[in-house]
Design goal:
CATH topology of the largest domain: Aspartate Aminotransferase, domain 2
Number of strands: 13
CATH architecture of the largest domain: 3-Layer(aba) Sandwich
CATH superfamily of the largest domain: Type I PLP-dependent aspartate aminotransferase-like (Major domain)
Radius of gyration: 21 Å
Order of helices and strands: EHHEHEHEHEHEHEEHHHEEHEEEH
Shape: globular
Bound molecules: pyridoxal-5'-phosphate
């Protein structure tokens, strides 16, 4: 082979992230239920903020001051400890780039978000996977994999794609068991959807510990996935380190303006929450009534399990649903080849999914 540039070790081990599908062959009307987007769309105030945004020729505020202030006011946080990113994916990557290097290890759980593995490998580190128990993160399994090379632990809570969560007591137990040099990243992308007495996203830990970071996103309940707005809150020393690694103008003006409007529109968030409460419960009940197993979810999506019987598998179900324009998410890449992930959609989409699954289970065809 001729001499040519070679990526550094780890890079070619990365399987590039494959996003949820958005098309189905031969179907004109498509219901995209594959990427946990909100069926309600963003706040009308956020749409207005983008439409009226002026001065595209000027560089944006590189430190996202107003957006950090708006987030700080909403969540009761010191804006100096907030860092904004083009989606929380970018922040997860920055965290890996800041704390992980060749020879270091980063831990995440078996069915955790694929971006962690990519971020650790891209930083030159070694991904370490902790098995889960019944689709829940297992604190003991994570702690058992900590070595003196461990630099970072990623915990999604609630988890994607399983929809499960672990109680805050368990998160605190995980933190208490980690050496103080390890960064614990709490990815709370779906926190706004959860109302459980024993759940907390973990702001208290971030405020009191020197090694805990929380990442949040505007892509889910706020409905701004396309604009790429995320944020993290961290101890001052971590925010400072990440700000050195961060691209100087990583956030664009329209995205920041929309984020500010969205975070201030509590009524819209309440509406999105109420829609999800209603339809998550309805979908779970209706799909279970068809004889399919659904893992109980606290987020805006759920995992539906299919048998391995020929003609009845998750792959078959995916093909059947797609032919009706219902696009769910295959989750083989998460080690879950026998399940599909369904995002809670509009009332119309939800009813069509249940109808289609009923026909699929009965063995009907799509004639
Ligand atoms: C959707 C999601 C995010 C958010 O990604 P963005 O880059 O903010 O769009 C982060 N973590 C998990 C687990 C997610 O599912």
């Amino acid at each position: 082979m001729s001499v040519r540039p070679q990526p550094r070790p780890g890079v070619m081990q990365i399987d590039a992230y494959v996003p949820g599908k958005s098309k189905a062959a031969g179907v004109s009307k498509v219901y995209k239920l594959s990427s946990n987007e909100t069926p309600l769309g963003p706040s009308p105030k956020a749409i207005e903020a983008v439409k009226t945004f002026d001065h595209l020729e000027l560089y944006p505020d590189g430190s996202a001051t107003k957006l950090r202030e708006a987030i700080g006011a909403k969540y009761g946080l010191d804006p100096n400890r907030i860092v904004c990113g083009a989606g929380s994916d970018e922040l997860l990557t920055y965290l890996a780039n800041t704390y992980v290097g060749p020879g270091d290890e980063g831990i995440f759980s078996e069915h955790g978000f694929l971006v962690y593995r990519i971020a650790i490998l891209a930083a030159g580190g070694t991904p370490v996977v902790a098995p889960e128990k019944d689709f829940h993160a297992d604190v003991d399994a994570i702690l058992a994999r900590v070595t003196d090379k461990t630099k970072i632990v990623f915990l999604t809570n609630p988890n994607n794609p399983t929809g499960t969560y672990i109680p805050f007591d368990e998160v605190k137990r995980l933190h208490a068991g980690l050496p103080k040099h390890v960064v614990l990243v709490l990815d709370a992308a779906y926190a706004e959807y959860v109302r459980r007495n024993d759940y907390e996203a973990g702001l208290e830990l971030v405020a009191t510990a020197e090694n805990v970071v929380m990442t949040r996103t505007f892509s889910k309940i706020y409905g701004l996935a396309n604009l790429r707005v995320g944020w993290m809150v961290a101890p001052a020393h971590i925010a400072d380190a990440v700000n050195r690694v961060r691209g100087p103008f990583n956030m664009n003006g329209p995205a920041m303006a929309a984020g500010i409007a969205a975070v201030q529109d509590e009524e819209h968030v309440a509406k999105a929450f109420a829609h999800n409460e209603q339809w998550l419960a309805w979908l779970t009940k209706e799909i279970e009534a068809l004889g399919l197993k659904v893992t109980p979810s606290v987020a805006n999506f759920m995992m539906i399990h299919f048998p391995e019987t020929a003609g009845k598998t998750a792959k078959d179900a995916d093909a059947f649903l797609s032919s009706r324009g219902l696009i769910l998410r295959r989750i083989d890449a998460y080690g879950l080849p026998n399940a599909l992930r369904l995002t809670v959609g509009s009332e119309e989409a939800n009813r069509l999914v249940v109808e289609a699954l009923r026909d699929f289970v009965k063995g009907g065809n799509n004639a």
